[in-house]
Amino acid sequence: MKYLFLAISSMLAIVAQMIAGNSFFLFNFLDIPLILITYWALYRSRVQALFVGSLAGILLDAVLGWPLGFNGFGKTLAAFLIGQTAKHFNVEEGWIRFTLLAGASFVSSLSVFLLFLLLGRRVSPVFLEASLAQAVITALVGVLVLAARDSYQQAHTGKAN
Fold first, then answer.
1. Residue 59: enclosing H or E segment and its boundaries?
2. How many CA within 13 A on the CB side of residue 28?
3. Can you spell out the DSSP letters for 14-39?
4. Contact 37, 6 (CB under 8 A)
5. C-alpha–C-alpha distance, residues 96 and 159, integer Å
6. What is the pTM of this model?
7. What is the mean pLDDT of the chain?
8. For residue 47, what is the enclosing H or E element?
9. 82 and 42 Cβ atoms separated by less than 8 Å
10. Residues 6+ apart with CB under 8 A from 91
11. Which residues contact 49 (CB under 8 A, 6 or more apart)?
12. How far is CA 7 from CA 103, 146, 155, in A?
């Protein structure tokens, strides 16, 4: 049942990404599934974050019409990077989370870019420039979302005591 919830949350993140991207141009540069992956890696289980990353990436490939596995590999790699960083370092500070999210987003996009190159598919260098913008915007929104989650959690635990 837990993995069904993970699958549904991944699908909802991609649907939200598509709807928001069609409505507002700025949302095309926001990676909502990566924020979901970061949440699972930091607050839940790193193994579940890997599952969410691979599933969200494969679903994203299916939606975009790309060969299956390109985004799956990138998002899984990002989940691994976030999970290992959270395991070895304190990621409570905002600037550390920003750096972590921006790095993970860019590594995910860079791995997709390299897979396109390795398999001989045409890819524009503009993809990397857009990936940098996506990394910054995703990191900013991700830090705000995670800070809101932390504030809610502190307020909720404060009322219980």
1. helix 46-64
2. 7
3. HHHHHHHHHH-GGGGG--HHHHHHHH
4. no
5. 28
6. 0.89
7. 90
8. helix 46-64
9. yes
10. 42, 85, 97, 100
11. 37, 38, 40, 41, 79, 82, 83
12. 25, 21, 29
Residue whose entry in the numeric block shows the structure tokens 């991700």: 142
Residue 20 one-letter amino acid: A
Q: For residue range 96-149, list pLDDT tens digits in order.
A: 999 999 999 999 999 999 999 999 888 888 998 999 999 999 999 999 999 999
Per-residue pLDDT, averaged over 21-30, amounts to: 84
Phi, psi of 107 (to 5 degrees): -60, -40
Give the DSSP letter of residue 93. Answer: S
Which residue ranges form the domains of the chain, and what is each CATH number? 2-160 (1.10.1760)
